[in-house]
Design a protein that fits this description.
The protein is an all-alpha fold. It has one domain. 71% of the residues lie in helices and 0% in strands. The chain has 18 helices and no strands. It has helices spanning 5-23, 36-47, 66-78, 82-94, 96-108, 111-123, 125-130, 137-157, 160-176, 184-194, 198-227, 237-244, 253-262, 276-293, 295-310, 319-343, 349-366, 378-410. The longest helix is centred in the C-terminal third of the chain and has 33 residues, at 378-410. The chain is globular and about 85 Å long.
Length: 414
């Protein structure tokens, strides 16, 4: 299914990610930044037999279980070594090479374009620089890409086995990054529209949901039991919603996050509200109240977050980083839009990818938004851009041939 040579590209991508992490990321053995420490410390507690708990031993569901479980398996063998964990994350990031190959080949029906996608995945700047981070974005990108590939293959082959495999990929992606849960209506809609009859559509949706529910069920049962309230994946949703939708919100996470930690989080302090589910619900109610009372401001914030999600340039990062994004993702955007316009309305694989991209965008327009939250859907954008580039090139060649025929008609001497 995957050519042997793809392993060579994958290995090259792995080496490039290691070099990028060592040279440009401050070194593989550097300390934790941001959420990295949360995932790693929970993983260490799992290895020590304390389970999913916070620093004082209280059960926690702030973060999804996928990445801590992966890290725990590694730590149980090697110990909590930062360099080894970052090397492991780079290895996971290199899986984008075969994943992009499979998706683009299925989308376009061309093995050559699949190879182009694989080569792009090896050197794509944002994927290379982000792979060594102990975060969920790149592993989620791998699984979302495989989810889209399995769905396309399942629809093309009319195979329930492939649909079940897609459900497993979807479940794993959601356990890594809860935002993937928002794909549910989009995937269901696409399956209903693309299947030949409603009975086949219903059967396909049920087959998709069985492995998905089986993967999420144990964590949901555990979290609901621990907190005494229904918790699907994480108790961080309420605070994230309020962080982005409050009277002081700017729509820029780099400003809103520190302000939330310094002031807004004390609206419901942990000491008074130790139950994470209840605290999340209170933050959610406060955010919904703000949205209802300030619909115009909410719309403004959504527009700002849309720009933060899709932006290609930021004055807060080095110029070299901006140039790398503009020269890679920036070049892909026009061809992505071409493919969206010409094929996005058809009941084909392009519609599936576009629906997933739209759902991810809509989610982060309502909640908080930064560029790295775009990573899970970037491989889908690149696959569509490759298809759009092929169509654009074929049109150019067609127009060139017509021009030669016109010249031959009017200038017989040529």
């Amino acid at each position: 299914m995957v050519p042997r040579n793809i392993v060579v590209l994958m290995f090259l991508g792995f080496l490039l990610r290691i070099v990028a992490g060592e040279v440009m990321g401050g070194g593989l053995n550097t300390g934790y930044e941001g959420d990295e420490g949360d995932y790693a410390k929970v993983a260490v507690r799992i290895v020590h037999g304390q389970g999913f708990t916070n620093y004082n031993g209280t059960p926690t569901t702030l973060h999804p279980p996928g990445l801590p479980l992966l890290l725990a398996m590694l730590i149980s063998l090697t110990g909590p070594q930062n360099a080894i964990m970052r090397t492991f994350m780079s290895l996971l990031g290199s899986l984008l090479t075969p994943a992009c190959y499979l998706l683009t080949r299925s989308l376009t029906g061309s093995q050559k374009l699949g190879w182009i996608a694989a080569a792009i995945a090896v050197v794509f700047p944002t994927w290379v620089f982000s792979s060594s981070a102990i975060l969920t974005d790149v592993p989620a990108a791998v699984l979302v890409t495989l989810l889209a590939w399995a769905l396309i293959e399942g629809n093309r082959r009319q195979s329930l086995s492939w649909i079940a495999l897609a459900g497993a990929f979807w479940g794993a992606a959601t356990l890594i990054r809860p935002a993937c849960l928002v794909y549910a209506p989009c995937i269901a809609l696409w399956l209903v529209l693309s299947m030949p009859c409603w009975k086949k559509s219903l059967t396909t949706v049920l087959v998709l949901m069985v492995p998905f529910a089986c993967m999420l069920g144990p964590w949901m049962i555990r979290s609901t039991y621990v907190h005494g309230a229904l918790v699907i994946l994480s108790t961080q949703g309420g605070s994230e919603l309020y962080k982005g939708n409050n009277p002081d919100a700017t729509g820029i996470l780099g400003i809103d996050h520190p302000h939330f930690d310094a002031a807004l989080s004390q609206r419901y302090p942990v000491e008074q509200f130790p139950n994470e589910a209840i605290r999340s619900q209170l933050f959610q109610e406060a955010a919904v109240k703000f949205i209802r009372e300030n619909p115009r401001r909410f719309a403004d914030l959504c527009f700002i977050r849309f720009g933060q999600f899709w932006k290609l340039y930021s004055p807060r990062v080095p110029l070299s980083n901006n140039l790398a994004v503009l020269a890679s993702f920036g070049l892909a955007i026009p061809f992505f839009l071409i493919q969206v316009i010409r094929a996005g309305w058809r009941r084909g694989p392009e519609m599936l990818l576009i629906l997933i991209v739209l759902s991810q965008t809509a989610l982060h327009m309502v909640f908080t938004s930064i560029v790295r939250y775009r990573l899970p859907i970037e491989p889908l954008v690149i696959a569509l851009a490759i298809a759009g580039f092929r169509w654009t090139l074929s049109q150019f060649q067609y127009d060139q041939w017509n021009s030669l025929r016109w010249l031959q008609r009017w200038l017989p001497g040529t």
